[in-house]
Design brief:
Elements: E1 2-6, E2 16-19, E3 29-39, H1 41-48, E4 59-60, E5 64-72, E6 84-87, E7 102-106, E8 110-112, H2 119-124, H3 126-139, E9 147-151, H4 156-167, E10 171-176, H5 179-188, E11 192-195, H6 201-208, E12 213-218, H7 225-228, E13 232-240, H8 252-255, E14 261-264, H9 272-287, E15 295-300, H10 304-314, E16 325-329
Parallel strand pairs: 9-10, 9-12, 10-11, 12-13, 13-14, 15-16
Antiparallel strand pairs: 1-2, 1-4, 3-5, 3-7, 3-16, 5-6, 6-8
Helix pairs in contact: 3-4, 3-9
Length: 331
């Protein structure tokens, strides 16, 4: 089968596209004919060696996939050949990645693809959607009527946060760096969309939410806690999901006397049951037309190197030319 893989960690050029043996589904596993995969920053960190996890070389890149069930292994109960599925959490913690024509995946990490949703859209919603849901609801304990602020509302996680928070009945504030991205944020449901290049973000937040922000979902690699913490409401929660090398200053005087919380998490630490609860809500919102995935750029599998370079330029290097997700078309 055709696959994009590495034999050792290194730069994007370490990725090869060639033939590898087609996997066989083991007990509890499903063989998926992959239609599309999506890239996330964690894929860059694993490929480069920045994040150390066990990698089964040759290691196939990417964690997110969508496709069609080709075959099922012993003990599979929910899925059957012909079912369309999406999922995440592959290529992590010793599991094999999925940018290949076929992938053997434990049934517990797969979910039915909603009718009318393409494989590219389903793959693009996987890690970002589950991450957004875990942060807002399991960690952030978001309730209807509360106020959420998420920087980068046109990005992968940010666009999911905007839509999920709105679907849950929250007031949603976000920011972006261009008129086009701000228009997209409003289309997704943001009540207030600010330009971080020209707007006074703290002043506008205080104007919109005089008592403060209930849930601040921080997506930036270098969060400024000295600015953010005083803008939280009493018992406000700040969610941290990025910034592996960041060492921000924490203004304790504005933090602990108001019972605020800092909550960091990585989605791959969540159990299959926890992630399935997220997927069930995601599928329900997609079916109801309340959640859509923004596919920013699609690369064929032959251009996997270029796909990772493009993502790296727009995340690690901050080029700002990406709206939504980077997807690799396999089929």
């Amino acid at each position: 089968m055709r696959a994009a893989y590495i034999e050792a960690t290194g730069p994007p050029e370490a990725i090869q596209v060639g033939d590898l043996p087609r996997p066989k589904p083991g007990p509890g596993q499903v063989l998926v004919r992959v239609g599309a995969t999506a890239l996330n920053p964690i894929d860059l960190y694993l490929r480069s060696g920045m994040v150390a996890m066990p990698l089964p070389f040759p290691y196939i890149i990417a964690a997110d996939l969508a496709g069609t069930v080709e075959e099922v292994g012993p003990g599979v109960a929910r899925l059957k050949p012909g079912d369309r599925v999406w999922g995440s959490n592959q290529g992590l913690l010793g599991r094999q990645g999925v940018t290949a024509e076929f992938a053997a995946v434990d049934e517990q990490w797969l979910y039915a693809t909603p009718s009318g949703q393409s494989d590219q859209e389903a793959a693009a919603q996987a890690l970002t959607g589950i991450t957004a849901h875990l942060g807002l609801f399991q960690n952030g304990r978001l309730k209807a009527g509360e106020t959420v602020y998420v920087p980068g509302g046109s990005g992968g996680v940010g666009s999911m946060v905007v839509q999920m928070a709105k679907a849950a009945g929250a007031r949603v504030i976000t920011s972006a760096g261009s008129d086009a991205k701000l228009d997209l944020c409003r289309e997704l449901g943001a009540d207030l969309a600010l330009n971080y290049k020209s707007d006074d973000i703290p002043a506008r937040l205080r104007e919109f939410a005089a008592e403060g922000v209930d849930v601040w979902y921080e997506t930036q690699r270098e969060p400024n806690l000295e600015v953010a913490i005083p803008l939280l409401r009493k018992r406000g929660r700040m969610i941290l999901v990025a910034g592996r090398t960041a060492k921000p200053v924490l203004p304790l005087g504005a933090f602990y006397p108001r019972d605020c919380s800092l909550l960091g998490f990585a989605m791959f630490n969540a159990s299959p049951d926890e992630q399935r609860r997220c997927a069930d809500d995601i599928n329900g919102w997609v079916a109801a037309g309340k959640l859509k995935t923004i596919v920013g750029r699609v690369f064929p599998i032959a251009e996997a190197v270029e796909a990772e370079k493009f993502l790296e330029e727009n995340t690690v290097q901050g080029a700002g030319k990406l709206t939504g997700k980077v997807v690799i078309a396999v089929a």
